[in-house]
Fold:
Amino acid sequence: MTAKRLIYNARILTQADGLVVDSMALNKGHIVAVGRSLEHDPDFRSYRKIDLKGLTVTPGFVDAHTHFYYMALAYGRVSLLGLDSIEACLETIRKFAAKLKKHEWVVGEGFELDRFKRRVEPNRLMLDNVTGGRPAFFFSKDQHTAWVNSRALKLAGITRKTRQPVGGEIVRDAAGEPTGILLEGTAYLPVHDLIGSPTADQTDRFYRRALKIAYQRGVTGVHSFDGPEALAFFTEKAEKGRLGLRINHYPGAQMLPKMHRVGVRYGAGDEFLRIAGVKIFADGSLGSQTALCFNKYPGGDNRGIETTSPSELRRLIKSATRLGLPCAVHAIGDRAVANVIDAFESSPPLKTGGHHRIEHLQMIRRKDIPRLKRFGIVASMQPSHCPADIDLVRKYWGTRGRNAYVFKTLIDRGINLAFGSDAPIEPLNPLAGMAAAVLRSRPGRRDLFYPEQRITAAQALNRFTVGPAFATGQEHCGGYILPGYPADLVVLSDDVTRVAASAIARIEVLATIIDGRVKHCVGGLDI
Structure:
């Protein structure tokens, strides 16, 4: 591959104050110049010239919230996504389980009770009938509810005598027996942690598949919120130069004691894998009705689950801050969001280049928005959740939905937004995310969700490029097409800022370049 390349006759969206140029020079994995008609500049006489014939180039897309390692492993599990009945789920599970060894775990995800044409609450006995005595564990689509069978409960020692865990719930029937539904991590982790890992060869194969998907979608970097096993895997790959994309990793707060012992600091790692902060959970999810809210959910006294108390939030944030580590706190309901802002307010300020974040921030009281700005909190949001959640918001939050997914209000108030997908919960697809932020409607439907909160395509693009870089304190080396920046680029069939909103999701990723290396290329491009 020629080290020196000059791309010209292109529409290059640099993301620097709206600057659009038509040419740029690349050398040794970095951008060395941007401008107009550089192909005629004698300084670049030795560069290989590449005519893009009017195609659009943007900075590489970065997904600011993924479970990328888990997304890779999911390729070896059974998917229940999109199934609209309990019968369809059970038949899919039966066919998958029949191919497994007698004592092998049956594992999968994706069931959505609110998608079922006839709502039926799953239970352990249903799974018992289709899993042939094998232990079984299935995540709901939002991964805040687990559906397990009797064998899995027995292996984990969960019985009618098991106490309810703090920050979670073992759902029980009228006789007090566990039904097989476990809400939030403290309830399902005793089962989940028993599931064996794939072999090294299987994991490598699944990871390569995930990388291929990322390249096809123009993704050059992700922020990872995976568990400890993911960091070990990423580290091994990075040491061998096979990580494949830039990863900012946020270990779970349970890792803080070890991080203190070994002295892990913000930014530890290299240009491809670095520690960017710590992940904490403040509540559950909308779909599982465990997102912590000020108001009750319909039909009872449930206001959601406080997975981490305010006092514990403050303790964890202070512990992380002592290491210079920002905190990324999962908070979906308005009460959880308020609790997190309170905790950030009472914590010592960060003295490193990163920023505290609230992950998801799906609903917020209007009076709490100025506090986000005051304390410099990044809103890490997933616009693809918005169209997917329209019915759920109306069902469970009612008119408070006007405070959900308030993209435009946050931008207008000067809040820094970083967009992601929450993959694999939603597909790793930044262009689809941009379309969701601009349209706020489900594909093929005119049902707009609070259209006054729509943002422009230019704003959405910025939040998948500059936004993630700012969130990790890397705006000096990412998110822009400027001299000195890494050559992480995407070539698109159309300009996302100029096409009709309805056409954004149909734009093709023609090439993906990371560190100057072509990772994906279609359409006869010779770059």
